[in-house]
Amino acid sequence: MTQRQKQIVQGIAWGLIYLLLVTAPLLVMILAPHPEGREFWREFSVSLGFIGLALMALQFALTARFKWLKAPYGADIVYHFHRQISFVALVLILAHPLLLFIFSPDTLKLLLFWSAPWRARAALTAVLALLAVVGLSVWRKRLKIEYDRWRIWHGILAMAAVAFALVHMLLVGHYLDLPWKRILWVIYGVFWIGLLAYTRLIKPWMLLRRPYRVTRVQAERGSTWSLTVAPAGHPGFRFQPGQFAWITLRASPFADAEHPFSISSSAEQTGSLTFTIKALGDFSGSIKDIREGETVYVDGPYGSFSCDRHPHAEELIFIAGGVGITPLMSMLRSLAERGDTRPLTLLYANREWEQVTFREELGELSGRLNLKVVHVLEKPEPGWSGESGFINREILTRHLPDLRQRDRVEIFICGPGPMMDAVERQLDGLGAWAGDFHSERFNFV
C-alpha cells in the first residue's frame, strides 16, 4: 500500500469514527423505549439538540492538535472543517428550542430567565455562549479584537456552552432514565474533561519541559524577519519540509498565547529551526524586538503540506505569493541539501522587486537545483522584462508542463487567500487533477 493510499484509508477511518460519535446519542434515543404521550416534534427537536451537543463536544478534539488525527487531512483542512461544522452545530442546537416554541407555544415562558426553572436557565446560558463563540469568530476583525484575547475568550465561551448544555440535559433527566443512557453521557463527559485536561494542563506542562532558545533574528526583504531557535537541553524534533509549528514567545505555555508559523529552514538541519515571519501587526510585528537567548516554546511539527508526502512525483511546481514562500523555501532548501535532480518550477508573486523575500538565495538555489524561478510583479519598475500583474492562466500556461497526466506533477500553492483561490481555479481549468495540487492556508480563525 502506497503512502497516499494509507492516508486515504486513515482519513476514511477517522471520518467514520467521527460520524459514529456524532450520531451515537441519536441512536441511543431511537433504540430506547419511548414513553407514551411524547409528541413527535418534541422528540425530533431533542434529537437535533443531542447531535448539536455531540458536535460541540467533538470540536475540542479537532483543535487539540493530535498529530495522528490531522495527518490524513492536513491541519488547515481540519481547522476549516472545525469552522464550518460550528455553524452546523449552531443551527441544530437553535432548532431544538425553536421547534418547541412553534409546536408547544407554552414553552416560550422558559425564556423568562429569572422565573424559569434551572434546566431552562442552563439551556439559555449555553445558547448565548454558543452565539457569542460564533459571533466573535465571524466578526473578530471587524470588532478589532486582538488575536490572543479572542483566543482566550473563544476557549472560555466554548467550554461554557458545552458545560451548561450538559447541565441542562442532566436537569431534564428524562433522557438519562436508563443505565446505558447514563453510561453514554458519562463517557462523553469524561472524554470532554480529558481533552480539556490534555490541552490546558498536560500539553503545556510537556512544552514547559522542552524549551528553545533564540539564536538569531535576521531581517529579510519584504518586511519579514527570520527567527532561528535551537532546542535547550533536548534533541528537538524532526519535521517534513513545508510543515509548521506553534510558537510561544515571552509567555508561559499555560498562557494560551501561541501562534502558528511555517518552518522555513531545511528539514535536513536538525540542530535548529527557522521561522520567517512577516510583520503584519499584533504578535508578528514584535518579532524584530526579540533578542538572542530569549526562551521560546515550540509545539510541532504539524501539517501535511510537504513534498515528502509525494515521493512518486516526477516534477514539482511551487506557486507562492508574498510571505507564502516560507513553507516552499523549506522544501527548496531541503531538496538542495538532498541533491534532488527533478525538474522544479517556482512561480513567485510579489508587489515590487524590492519586496521579494529570499530573492538572492532563490537565485543561488536555481544553480544548485534543476530549478526555474519565475518572478511575477504586480508593480514592476520601468524596464522589467519578466512577468507582471497577477498569476493567471496565460502565465501558468507559459511556464508549467502538461498537467493532465495524473500523479506525475505535484503542485504546492501558498499565499494570500484570493490568490490561492484564483490559481486553483486556473489549474482546474488546465486539466490538473484536484489531488495533484495542494494549498496551505494561514488563516486558522
How would you describe this protein?
The chain has 445 residues and is of the alpha/beta class. The strands form 2 sheets. A 6-stranded antiparallel beta sheet has the order 4-3-6-1-2-5, with no helix packed on it. A hairpin with a 3-residue loop joins strand 1 and strand 2.
Topology, please?
Layout: H1 3-31, H2 40-62, H3 67-70, H4 75-103, H5 118-138, H6 147-172, H7 179-208, E1 211-220, E2 224-231, E3 244-249, E4 259-262, E5 273-278, E6 295-302, E7 315-321, H8 325-338, E8 344-350, H9 359-368, E9 371-377, E10 387-388, H10 393-399, E11 409-414, H11 417-429, E12 437-440
Parallel strand pairs: 7-8, 7-11, 8-9, 9-10, 11-12
Antiparallel strand pairs: 1-2, 1-6, 2-5, 3-4, 3-6
Helix pairs in contact: 1-2, 2-4, 2-7, 4-5, 5-6
